Each structure stands twice: as structure tokens, then as C-alpha cells.
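Batch manifest, entry 17 of 40.
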Amino acid sequence: MQQLQTMAPRRRAALAALLSAHTTNALLAGPPLNARATRPCFAPATAPAVDDETDFVSADDLEREAFAEEVVVRSKGPTAAELRARAWFEAALQEAEADYPTRAPPVALASSEGVAALERPSVVLPSKKQEPWRFTRLDDLWRCAPTRELADAAPLAPSDLEPWLPADDDEPVAVLVDGVVDAALSKNLGFSSDRKSWVGSIRDAPPDVLKVMGPLHASLPEVVKEESIPQRVSLGGGALCGLNAACAPDAVVVWVADDADALAAADDLRANAPDRVESDAACVRAHVVHARRRAKGAQHARTVISTGAGANAAVRESFVGFTKLDRFSALTNARTTCSVGAGATLTHVLDGNEAEQAHIHHATAVCARDGAFLARTLSDAGALSRVCVDCDVAGAGAFFDFSGVQLGGSDQNLDLRTALTHSSPDADSAQDIRNVAAENARLVFKGRIDVPQLGQRTNADQLCRSLVLDDGAAVDAMPSLEIVADDVKCTHGATVADLDEESIFYLESRGLARADARALLIKAFCFELVQKTDDMLPRGTLDRLDAKLLEFEERQKNRRGRYSSI
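Output type: C-alpha cells
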């Protein structure tokens, strides 16, 4: 500052303005992500070096210099949205640290490592500047409260969960209330009668189950590890997956033992016909219900699934809200990791029923030799929904089959993303996505298939079909292929259209009202994929879909100017 006093008034004023810009941006930058309330929030601003030369500089030149440098300084600083994201994560981490002593290992171990991973400077928070988050309404995401708040509602009763329970009373059901397994509401937890499967909380898992699955923090990729894997970076799950590891109070474990007989039978079939053979072992079914009773805050749900060699399992995850929530007052940040053994078959069904809130779900799977991972996703309820499925076909002869349905109305923002890596030869995959956008909904699908040099003789298909029912609705479909191997058969495509007027006219000529005819055609458009859930969707979900389709068409009766068939 002493140098400033010896300079010409005009240059002194310009440099003072620059100093003010530096100071302002230093304050706007805020604390780093790993800063705590007990630490200083802002570092003192340092003055830029000042040239001692006294050559005359015009006032216009000085103003241009000051403005240019101010723009540069501001461009390097965080935006208002980035500041909100940083504050949101900071509050969530503080809650995780406060709640950490009450957690039991290995959940506490994973929580501590999750906090440590998130505090590293290399962690990149979600931002509109990143391609994976370009179509997600992040402003609405940061509106959700990061800390949990108890609701005044009465405790849940078994009758409240009846629409979401399987018809078979012998099937295990794990019910989590606000992220913690409730033993009173759950049923048939623990080992099965033949001790070939185990379902329950990670806190109660026996040592032999944990030994087979490995440590919890090893089955959940850390943030640093995810940053080094391209397909996981493309899904943008690094920071949120790390937050799940830091904040999840409990985890559901579904473990299925090896089935040596089924694996041997499949090997005999492959010896005669080298085509892919799915496991014919008895199917082990499990149902996981994530129930929310908190009025606000982020719920961090975690599910770990492991199927042994030759096993056959089917797991359904349902997210249900039992508390009246204000719009964007709550967030569900879920994480599911799947391990498919050699010759095993795993079917995973994801069903969300959380209206007026945000739902973020990251699912990863690794398929061993001749393993099959069948993923089914239904997104229709959340105001903001983002589902990411990451699968590594790591074994020769493995198979990945994905079916996704997005049904959006009002001003919903539904985002579905897949990242598939064919890292072994002789593997197959098929992806089929159906989107229905009405009113002012914004639906997004982005799928990526990577076939490196090792993925020879890969057969991969990816198709996204979309219906746009209103002028205000929009669908962004972005299928993509990245192929290095030279002996492959890979296809991808996308279609966007309205309902066929000739089909509507035909149904009207058979006595159906126009609204009923349109709802029937939309239902037929989605039913092909819903049918693949193998009757794992509860009746509550099917009734909700029917009601939403009829609501769409009731609102369309007096509207004009819609898309014609394309």
C-alpha cells in the first residue's frame, strides 16, 4: 500500500480497484470443501505486484486493463451455483461427522473413508459446466435440505407397506426407514432355510457373508478411484457417491451362495453349444423398501448385492414416501453395487415413488464369466430424478440387459444414463429405453458403450424410443458408441414421435373415447418393458402408472397445437 501512495492518482485508483476485485473474489470463493466451522473461512487477499514505472498511462488504458483483469479474476472464481453446491456438501459432511460415533462397523469405517475422500481437493462437485450435469436442474437439487429433520407423523405400521410387499409371504423383505433397517417392519431376514442366501442389515451380517463379499468400503468405489475410471466420470457420480459412503447410516446386504450344480449343468450346455446360457438355479427373491418419514433432508440409501457362481437372484428396490413433503425439501441419494458371479443371473428392478422431491441413484455392476445382469428401471414420480447405471462386462460370455421407462408430466426433470464397458470378448448387451414426455416435462437419456481392444466379438444394441405428447415437453436422447476393437456388432439409435393418429382413429371407431384410446396406446408403448420386470412390480406401482396415464389424457381434451406423427 505504501507503493500505491507514491503513484499517480489515476493509476493508484485503477490498482485500488483491482485490489478490491481480488478481495471480493477471494471472499466469494469461500472455504474449501474440507474446511470446518472451527477453521478460518477466508484467506486474506494478497495484493498483486505493482510495477514501479512512472510512465504515463492514459485513463482509458487503465480502465481497459482493470476491466480485463477483473474479468479474468472473476472467470476463475466460482459461480453462485457452485457456491451453493459447496455450502450444501459442507452441511451434509458436518452432519455425517456429528453422526459418525453412533454408527457401527463396517458402516462407520465406510463413513470415515467417505468423509476423507470428499475432503480431498481433487473432488469435483456437480456443476452445469460438466457434461454429465448439463441437463439436470442443479438449482432444484441444492434447494433440498442437506440435513435431516424428523416428521411429526405416526410410526409406520405393517399395513402401510402392504401395497409394496410381495405376494409370497416367504420372500425376504428388508424395510429401511430413513436409511436404517427396521427389524419390526422387515420379515424373513437372515439366512434362508437352506442357508444358500442371506438378506439383512450390514450390522447383522455374519463374518462368512462379509468375508465372501469383501469389506463394504471395497465394494463401494471411492471417489478417487472413480475419477480414474472414464465411464464413471461420465456419469458424474464421484462426489455424490462419496457423500453416500460418508452419510449412509446403514446398508442392506443381499448375498447368494454358489450353486455348483447349476454352474456344472450350464458348463455342460456351453460345451455342446457355446452360446450364452443363463443360470437355471432356483431364483432367490428379495425386496428392499426404502421408506421416508423425515419431513426434510437428504436420505442416503445403500444396497449391496452379491451373487455366487451359478446362482440366480432377483432383487427389487422400491422408494416410497410416507410423509407429505414440500416441493424439493428432500433428496434421496441412493447407491447400489452388484457383483454377478460366474454363470450367475441377477435381475435388479428399481422403482421410485417419491413425488415432489429429488432422487439420485447410482448403480454399478460387475459381471464375471458367463454372468448375466438384467437391470430394470422405472422413473415416473420424482420432480427431479436421475438414475445412472454403470456396468462392466468383465468376463467372457457375460450379458447385460437394460430396460428403462421414464414417464414424465407437469414440469418433471427425469434423467437416465448408462455406461457400459465390454472389457472381455464374446459378450452381449441390449439396452431398450422408452420415454413419454407430457406437458412441460424434460426427459433425458444418455447412453455410452465402450468396447476396448479386448472386447472382440462383442454384440451390443442400444435403442431409445420417445413419445412427445405436448409442445412444451422435450426429450434429449444421446446414444453413443466408442469402439476400439475391430470384430464387433454394435448398433445404437433414437426415435422421437407423437402417437399415431391412425391408431387413435381405429380405437375410436371401436367405441373408445379419445382420451382412453391415447392412454391405451401409451400403456402399450411402455408395457413391453414393464413386462420384463417378471412380476416384481407391486400393485401400487401399476395402479400409479394407470392413474398417471389417464391424468395425462384428461388434461389433453381441450388442448390444441400438438405434434403430429413424425
